[in-house]
Predict the 3D structure of the following.
Amino acid sequence: MTPPRLTVATAQFALTARPLINAKRMAALIHRSAEAGAQVAHFPECALSGYPRQQLESWQGYDWTALEVAQDLVAQACRDAGLWAVYGSAQPLADAALPHNSVFVVAPDGQACGRYDKRCCSLRELDYFTPGGGPAIIEIAGLRCGVLLCLEWSFPELWRAYADAGVELVFLSAYAAGLQGRHLHSDVIPPVLQGHAFTNSLFISTSNACNPSQAFASHWVKRSGRRGSACRRHRPGLTVNAVADDPEKDAVYRRIRAFRAEASSGRLYRNLQRSEAKLKDE
């Protein structure tokens, strides 16, 4: 059996409006992730700050100092466990009334080494967040990783751009929670993510909050488009999956990516036209 290149614990829990409580829940899951043999613990959208419209009516009176302390608690948990953490949180901006909806990447030494700011906010989110401006690619254990947030599952161009940049794993942090009964997201979003994985040859870790219910459980998608393991729906916990070290399969998926890039650019069609023209001349 080939060893993994990267082992990821995709975690979920019920978010609160109090960042210190969220941080303690995340720290416990970080330690559980380490015990399960993971190298990275991945958390939902706004995991540390709480999600507006659900836990927060507005940012007015929000305790940003408590959020800074909570960030330190998560960093300390990473140091203690020797683990990476990828988690969602609001990021206040000095020159804007509204914060970014961000994902932070923290290294095992507790240092922040990357941040992604959500670009495609919903109309409702624009009442709470300032959109970001670009992608984020972070290298973890030699693996190129990208980050997206929730609604960005609806924008194929974002996934394609990461694939074109050589990304192999995308961390998608989501808040599709607090929904009663089955929801459109329950049936539609997991297959959409499988489609992104298949068409772009990407591994996807999807972490979704459970407050107290969720549209779909946090789960893993393989680059073949097949589902990996998943958390229990509506229950706090984690699931562990891995990007395996498999040079033969890696070579196959590189060829698949190259073919799709050529086909979508129109080069493949033009090359076929040239080949047919040569045959006619002969």
Summary: Residues 122 and 251 are 38 Å apart (CA to CA). The helical segments are 19-35, 64-81, 156-164, 184-200, 247-265, 267-281.
